[in-house]
Amino acid sequence: MSLQQTLIVFDVIDSAYVSGQEVVDLFAGYPDVTATTHRAEGPKGGTDFVRITVPGSQGKRGGGNAPTLGIIGRLGGIGARPTRIGVVSDADGAIAAVTSALKLADMQRKGDVLDGDVIITTHICPSAPTRPHDPVDFMDSPIDDVTMNENEVVEGVDAILSIDTTKGNRIINHKGFAISPTVKEGYILRVSEDLLRIMEMTTGKPAVTFPITTQDITPYGNGVHHLNSILQPSTATDVPVVGVAITAESVVPGCGTGASHEVDIALVAKFAVEVAKEFGRGTCKFFDADEYQLLLSLYGSLRHLQSRK
């Protein structure tokens, strides 16, 4: 069950001294899984990027042609020390991503190997800065968003789930998680019916979605308001991206502590695992390719929205 892995990951990152290597060490007992980390420095400090690759039986890594899913744990930092003590709400995306990787690794060791490869990325920073944002303060990041995308949006994936805590707003008033419409090269497409189906199957409840705007799918630093960074990966890739927002009924600042709910994180990890199963075997589509081509023929490319100017 994903809850067990969630608690393991939460225990590891709940430390002022945690590093990317400690996250990588979680995968030492899984010889078929590749986990690496490296340090990146920025003007406000540094962070440890983590990449975990769980190979599939028919994945590209082994010479197959099954599609590869990317799972990104999106956040500014897992902690805001010394301003705040403990794990902040913003950490949920990282915990969910690493939990999904740990669950997939455990499944593989027990003989349940997915068809396609899955590549999970996130970063570990226990002392990230904060910044003002309306209606509540956000976590900031020690590195710029270009560096973030360069390390988290990896080559070779065919679709991306971007998991991010999204509680600091009045747009989503639901405790659990919600998914966004699919974003591809500047287009906000319809919500994937397959992802809605998988969400309802894993939660046992009606699917919950959240609205996004043109501003949300443009790069940070262009001066316009963004819901948060959940869809920033879409600015750095040509593959479809869907935001998976970990949500609350109340407005919770990203730098708030004691605000993580392990059951909700585990539910997101379970959803990501089920998407990975179906995406690799071709039974989950993020968008309608024919309709997308029709949009291009009617209205042209919107890729200019992926740049700051």
Write up this protein.
The chain is of the alpha/beta class. Helix content is 28%, strand content 19%. It contains seven helices and eleven strands. The strands form three sheets. It has a seven-stranded mixed beta sheet, sandwiched between helices. It has a two-stranded antiparallel sheet with strand order 5-6. Strand 9 and strand 10 form a beta hairpin. The longest helix is centred in the C-terminal third of the chain and has 19 residues, at 262-280. The protein is globular and about 50 Å long. 50% of the residues are buried. The mean pLDDT is 96.
Relevant terms:
DUF1177 domain-containing protein; 309 residues; alpha/beta; DUF1177; globular; two-stranded antiparallel sheet
* Tally of helical runs: 7
Report, as a whole number of angstroms, the end-to-end distance: 45 Å
Order of helices and strands: HHEEEHEEEHEEEEHEHH
Low-confidence stretches: none
Using the CA coordinates, give the radius of gyration.
18 Å
Strand adjacency order, main sheet: 1-2-4-3-7-11-8
Q: What is the percentage of strand-forming residues?
A: 15-25%
Shape: globular
Largest sheet: 7 strands, mixed
Number of strands: 11
Portion of residues within helices: 25-40%
* Helical/strand content category: alpha/beta
Q: What is the mean pLDDT?
A: 96
InterPro entries: DUF1177
Protein name: DUF1177 domain-containing protein
Pfam families: DUF1177
Question: What's the arrangement of secondary structure elements?
Answer:
Layout (H helix, E strand, L loop, with lengths): L1 H12 L6 H6 L8 E9 L2 E10 L14 E6 L17 H18 L8 E7 L5 E2 L6 E2 L5 H8 L6 E7 L10 E4 L3 E2 L2 E2 L4 H11 L37 E7 L14 H19 L8 H11 L10
Parallel strand pairs: 3-4, 3-7, 7-11
Antiparallel strand pairs: 1-2, 2-4, 5-6, 8-11, 9-10
Helix pairs in contact: 1-3, 1-6, 3-6, 5-6
